[in-house]
Amino acid sequence: DLCFLGGFPGPLREVLGIWAEETDGLYDGETNGIRMEDGATYACSTMCDLIHPETARTLGRYTADFYAGEPCVTMNPYGGGRAYYVATRPDAAFLDAFYGRLLDEVGVDRLLTESQAGVLAASRGGAVFVMNFTGRPAKVSLPEGTDALTGENIGGEAELPVNGIRIVRTIPK
Length: 173
Fold this sequence. Notes:
By secondary structure, this protein is mostly beta strands.
């Protein structure tokens, strides 16, 4: 909560290509919506920034209240990359779609073919660690490879017990 002269987001204003006029805090249980360029809609909550794109392109707009139609998701080309700003707290469906699209655009291979809340996957040294923190058994689609603990060939659908882990030594592509 530092104060920057010249408005929020302070020193990131040029990178993000926006300036924020105001932040509106929402009451518990109060929501708004995001409508993306492709027509997809998502819920958002907690806070809504009123932003003004300067060099950024608007990708999504609020759907309700006095800020209906105002920008809430932007992208600004900067240097050799892109900076994104999400001016609210979007729901999990938005995050899955938004980050999934970005991963696809830049060519990042996914460790699991489907994401599932509470199931985490990490890659280290040629192995994929798949961990279940859901509090219940979870079905996952494991990558092809060798189970690091048993030596058996594995891949495809498997069930992980509560707090279970599978370590897959992956087959090089």
